[in-house]
Amino acid sequence: MSEPRWRAAHSSEAQEQSDVAIYARTSSRNQRFGYSLNEQVRVCIEHCEMLGWTVAFIYKDEAESGKDTDRPMFQKLLRAAKQRHFDVIMFWKLDRFSRSLMHAVQLETEVRTHGVGLYSVTEQIDTTSAAGRFNFRNIASAAEFERDMIQQRTQMGLRALALDHKWPNDQPPLGYAKRADGTLRLEKSEAELVREIFDLYLQERSMPAVAELLNGRETTTKAGNRWCARAVGDVLRNSIYIGEYEVGDIVETVPEYRIVDDDVFQRVTAVRHRFRREKEKRTSMPASRKERIVNEMLDTYDEYLQSYRC
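Predicted structure:
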């Protein structure tokens, strides 16, 4: 198999022979001019003309997220790359191709095995040369390092909030309001509703039944929506109602956050898990019983064979 054309030295002859697939993407249908599909394609075509490369294909994904590769035209692009229908994938900017640089590195490695390189018009990304691939990996490494640092700072921030028992967002659970300093205080009417939900569940032993009762009373969730079994379950599972505050890796008991008693919470948990326990009982059959059942089945089968022979 001949060496991919773009791996040759960057002479004008090598550039003239390169076939290019242009990829453009927008994340919304009303993307601003300058980021539009047509504008991305236009800039790429102009760049190909400058380099002497031939535009062989144009792939456009409109209103598609770049967080993964589950995009219709992007998948077609990858399939065409595997079949070596072109030499270079060109895009206006790397985040049009992939939101994650680590993912972009994986994709670059994948398409390179098929003799296809990547080229960004606005960035120093050109994997059609050894120097370009080296630079691409340096950019990717720096970006991943920055992402890791952001995640670390975020975790540190969450931990600082948690140590002060502050709520990390603006949507506290049902039963609470968020103070100006970030801590929670009980919201009397909502706290009463939480207690009622626990009591109703112990009576009905059914989340859908509790949701139906709440909707019948025209009671809504904290977000103002109708109740459903899942919303009821979210309340019943939340250990903050017994004062267990958990954010990140911080788990502490905060007495002033308590709404229901431990006994009520444990009884509700036991009811919720009753089917799991019954299933465990069914699946944990004693060996003696298993042996007896098998022997009974064998005896029945022998009797059937004997009656059949008669």
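Summary: Residues 130-163 form the longest helix (34 residues).
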